[in-house]
Specification:
By secondary structure, the chain is α+β, with helices and mostly antiparallel strands. The chain contains twelve helices and 17 strands. The protein has helices at residues 3-12, 63-66, 70-85, 91-106, 141-149, 201-215, 228-236, 258-262, 283-293, 319-336, 360-363, 373-380, and strands at 29-34, 37-44, 55-58, 110-118, 121-128, 135-137, 153-155, 173-181, 184-193, 219-225, 241-249, 269-276, 301-302, 305-306, 312-316, 343-346, 350-352.
């Protein structure tokens, strides 16, 4: 084989996600799909001295790996998906990689998500495959039925499904799995095959596990607490908080810069987005910590920072959270004997602040912060210690 042939093979093979399957470390291997068969390769120098591209050498795989059952493939894929999604908060990004990994592993004809756009309609989300229907009404077709009936729907032959929407005549069988987010369906995962009877209870079981990873058990809440540098550091210390980011919330200016928000002409408040594990820390505790971190009776001012951008507030994206927050806030105000200046609103919008604001006090340990060191100690205490 010539140098040119070596290099052309390397360049033209489509890449597949690196893994650690069968003891083959992703650190020194590369994995590819060739005619739907996983081939693991390691990299060495090209034997032709003038060439800088690496040589391709095939590793022999254990027979078991080459003949994995469908269930074994799902079991291998689930932890990879979980690891890939860790730390990523954007819904579209998470959907996109779930689709890519399912498609890469199983080679389905069409794999994608439809997102709930309104109370009556699904809209096309990230997918891999041919052009698809862009909107589907609730109760129509397999996707609409899955959403309406709140269950996974397996269709051995789409031609026999009442009300089937024929986006393509090549689709022969289908499975649609609802994606739950805090007690409601926020999307559906739709997978189509060109063959009849492709999907079964194994697919149902593991695809329902896959979709549970999309939104996970974590919840989100947004706190306006004055300058967001100190507020982010505070919540990062709380056990059970898995992610934080700072930005601007509930104003009217689209995607503002910090300089724009600083003018107090955008309607935005400096805000911390807090994602937490409710099995480790409750929303009640987070709100109580927030009320002890701020001056809850100061209007548009925290410390020496003054302006509407420094107002205090709690913003939620789940209506069920409002009752919890109202209860905690009401109890606090009753004990204090007066109303607070904390606003409680649904989250209308949140725009992430510039990167230099993210984890600012970690990057600049001596940086400005209106909070006292004792406040950060409060965040690190367990409920029993407080």
């Amino acid at each position: 084989m010539s140098c040119t042939e070596y290099c052309e093979r390397l360049v033209n093979m489509p890449p597949m996600l690196l893994g650690n399957i069968g003891g083959i470390s992703a650190h020194n291997t590369q994995a590819w799909n060739y005619d739907s068969v996983p081939v693991f390769l390691y990299l060495a120098e090209c034997p032709w001295e003038h060439c800088t591209i690496i040589e391709l050498k095939t590793l022999s795989l254990p027979e078991k790996l080459m003949n994995m059952t469908k269930e074994e493939k799902y079991l291998a894929l689930l932890p990879q998906i979980q690891a890939l999604l860790a730390g990523e908060t954007d819904e579209v990004a998470r959907m996109s990689n779930i689709v890519a990994m399912l498609n890469s592993e199983f080679g389905f004809w069409w794999t994608g998500f439809y997102r709930v756009a309104s109370s009556e309609e699904l809209v096309l989300g990230p997918f891999q495959g041919p052009v698809a229907c862009m909107r589907i009404a609730k109760g129509r077709g397999v996707c609409g039925t899955s959403w309406n009936e709140e269950r996974t729907v397996i269709v051995p032959d789409v031609e026999l499904f009442p009300g089937h929407i024929a986006c393509s005549s090549e689709s022969r069988s289908e499975i649609v799995v609802p994606c739950w987010k805090r007690g409601r369906i926020a999307a559906v995962l739709d997978i189509d095959s060109k063959d009849l009877n492709t999907f079964d209870e194994v697919d149902r079981k593991y695809l329902e596990e896959v979709t549970s990873l999309l939104y996970g058990k974590e919840r989100d809440i947004w706190f306006a607490a004055g300058c967001f540098w100190g507020a982010q550091k505070f919540f990062k210390h709380v056990d059970g908080v898995v992610f934080t980011e700072v930005g601007f919330a509930n104003g009217w200016e689209t995607d503002p810069t910090y300089k724009q928000v600083y003018t107090d002409e955008t309607g935005h408040a400096e805000c911390v987005h807090v994602r937490y594990d409710p099995e480790k820390v409750s929303l009640e505790r987070l709100v109580n910590l927030f009320l002890n971190m701020i001056d809850p009776f100061s209007l548009n001012k925290q410390g020496e920072d003054e302006g509407t951008r420094y107002r205090t507030g709690v913003y939620y994206d789940n209506g069920e959270d409002r009752e919890v927050i109202e209860t905690v806030l009401g109890s606090f105000e009753n004990k204090a004997g007066r109303k607070s200046a904390v606003e409680l609103q649904p989250l209308r919008c949140f725009y992430k602040a510039e990167e230099y604001h993210q984890n600012y006090l970690d990057k600049n340990p001596g940086g400005y912060c209106h909070l006292s060191p004792a406040i950060f100690e409060l965040a690190q205490k367990t409920p029993k210690e407080q």
